[in-house]
Specification:
Order of helices and strands of chain A: HHHHHHHHHHHHHHH
Structural class of chain A: mainly alpha
Structural class of chain B: alpha/beta
Strand order of the largest sheet of chain B: 4-3-2-5-6
CATH superfamily of chain B: SCP2 sterol-binding domain
Number of strands of chain B: 7
CATH topology of chain B: Nonspecific Lipid-transfer Protein, Chain A
CATH topology of chain A: Ribonucleotide Reductase, subunit A
Number of domains of chain B: 1
CATH class of chain B: Alpha Beta
Number of strands of chain A: 0
Number of helices of chain B: 6
Oligomer: heterodimer
Strand content of chain A: under 5%
CATH class of chain A: Mainly Alpha
Largest sheet of chain B: 5 strands, mixed
Mean pLDDT of chain A: 95
CATH architecture of chain A: Orthogonal Bundle
Number of domains of chain A: 1
């Protein structure tokens, strides 16, 4: 009786065959349709979109039923084991026409918080300004990684045939790791530290993580949440007291805009195929709007920005008035992005289009 | 080298040449694929220039008679000639923009510079490639510039 398992014995039998010159070589001609593929490199090199053409560029409306990690376009031997993981098997559930392009863009526009931020230019700031910067960074450190956790939650459920989407989401997770990292670093790097967390922020984060399906989670996070944060990043660059914050916000802004671009195109692709699902998207955006309105007016969110806009705590009222336009800009861009995706929310909006700070004060 | 007139195709081509010269630095920032229309509002008329970026280079620069002639996917960066002049002179004085003359600083409140486009995703391209666009305009530090009369 053999001391090895049947699987090991089968392997040894195969080895004996090879030792006698009996090779299989069936794999060499396993995929005649996929052989002879031609690629023309672009000026920068070979992008994903340069190789995903012809036979290999055909993305199925329904992902493969074998349920394995076999790459799209290869020959899959009968009996290949299914992983039993994939629940997102319909293209419309995850796809966006720009996913491959955004992946290519993400990998060539990567940066790092160690050497790409001019940390040597950090200098002591007035106490109120340093506290405001640190509070802003505390809030951003808290919120940023939801956009890593959310894709991570869904990634292993996406059929392997939609690898462009999986690859793009993987870059997003790395982007968000960098954002968490860089805002935490800034809060700790200049003699201050982390200040107060945001309960209102947690409501939005849980709505994103608990969304019932990928598309509603994506609409809430990529379009709504990241769209609003994109404006906050622009505001951060605008208010930056030094080159350090300028660089941080400008780099983060670029990443965030990429994520928003995926979300808009995914929702468009989805709604063109499932117009009947628009109400579910509206419903989750109702939740998001309620959460963001509370968040916008929460002291730990609004006051540090007003201090920076006014140039100090003594001018916080002036700063509040100066920054009143931000919210209206966020809402306007949010509605315009949804319009591109095919979702008209002008009449459905559950929050004001502007916050009338002057009238409230009066 | 003589001074280049702003705005003119020659002026933007001079920035494109500096971009070509700094190719490695732009490569570090990553590829940039978008079409930017620069609008310069002077008292007598507005001037429009289309700059098409591809990879880490400028593919083309051309003057437009009207905005409808621009490539379909584009964003428009608009300001008065005086604002453009102040930004360029600030870049020339400091070797790059100071804290209050970056593209984002000038456009964020929608004044004195404004960014718009046919749709929001095109406007978002301005945010997506901001670091590269900022570097492109920072190239003005090395371009001696004369200005059309305001």
């Amino acid at each position: 009786m053999s001391k090895y398992t049947p699987a090991v014995e089968a392997g040894l039998d195969r080895l004996r065959e090879m030792a006698h010159g009996n090779y299989d070589l069936g794999w060499m001609n396993a995929n005649p349709e996929g052989w002879g593929h031609e690629v023309t490199p672009g000026p920068l090199g070979v992008r994903l979109c340069d190789v995903e053409t012809g036979y290999y560029g055909r993305v199925p409306e329904h992902g493969s039923e074998h349920g394995s990690m076999a790459p799209r376009g290869c020959a899959v031997p009968p009996g290949t084991t299914a992983l039993g993981m994939y629940t997102l098997n319909e293209m419309a559930e995850v796809w966006a026409e720009n996913a491959g392009l955004l992946y290519d863009e993400a990998v060539v526009r990567q940066w790092n918080s160690v050497t790409d931020v001019p940390w040597d230019k950090l200098a002591p700031l007035p106490d109120d300004i340093e506290r405001a910067v640190c509070q802003m960074c505390t809030g951003l450190t808290e919120v940023e990684f939801v956009a890593g956790d959310m894709p991570a939650k869904w990634l292993c459920r996406i059929n392997h045939d939609f690898h462009e989407v999986k690859l793009f989401l993987a870059t997003q997770i790395m982007d968000e790791a960098r954002h968490l990292d860089v805002f935490r670093k800034r809060a700790l790097a200049n003699g201050g530290g982390l200040l107060m967390a945001s309960p209102c922020q947690e409501k939005l984060l849980s709505a994103i993580l608990e969304a019932p399906d990928y598309t509603t989670a994506s609409a809430l996070m990529h379009i709504f949440g990241e769209g609003f944060v994109l404006t906050l990043f622009r505001q951060g660059e605008f208010l930056a007291p030094s080159e350090v914050e300028k660089a941080i916000f400008r780099l983060c802004m670029q990443d965030e805009a990429r994520h928003v671009a995926y979300g808009v195109k995914h929702l468009k692709f989805f709604l063109e195929r499932h117009p009947d699902r628009a109400e579910q998207v509206h419903a989750i955006l109702d939740l998001g709007e309620q959460a963001i309105f509370g968040l916008t007016l929460e002291p730990q969110t609004s006051e540090p920005r007003a201090i920076l806009a006014g140039g100090g705590l003594a001018n916080i009222e002036l700063g509040m008035a100066r920054m009143a336009f931000i919210y209206a800009k966020q809402v306007r861009e949010y509605l315009r992005r949804l319009q591109i995706a095919g979702l008209d929310r002008e009449d459905r909006l559950t929050i004001p289009k502007e916050i009338p700070f002057d009238r409230v004060a009066a | 080298m003589g001074r280049k007139l702003f705005p003119s195709t020659e002026w933007f081509e001079a920035l494109a040449q500096r971009m070509e010269h700094d190719r490695d630095a732009y490569r570090d920032l990553g590829s940039i694929d978008c079409t930017m229309v620069v609008r310069v509002d002077a008292p007598e008329r507005s001037h429009l220039y289309e700059i098409v970026f591809a990879g880490v280079a400028v593919r083309s620069v051309r003057r437009l008679a009207r905005i409808e002639d621009a490539a379909p996917g584009h964003f428009v960066l608009s300001a008065s000639l005086e604002t453009w002049r102040e930004m360029i002179e600030n870049i020339r004085a400091h070797g790059g923009p100071d804290l209050t003359h970056t593209l984002n600083y000038l456009t964020f409140p929608d004044y004195p510079m404004h960014v718009d486009g046919p749709d929001q995703l095109q406007v978002d391209a301005f945010y997506r490639y901001n670091q590269s666009l900022q570097r492109f305009f920072a190239g003005a530090a090395g371009v001696a510039t004369a200005y059309a009369r305001a």
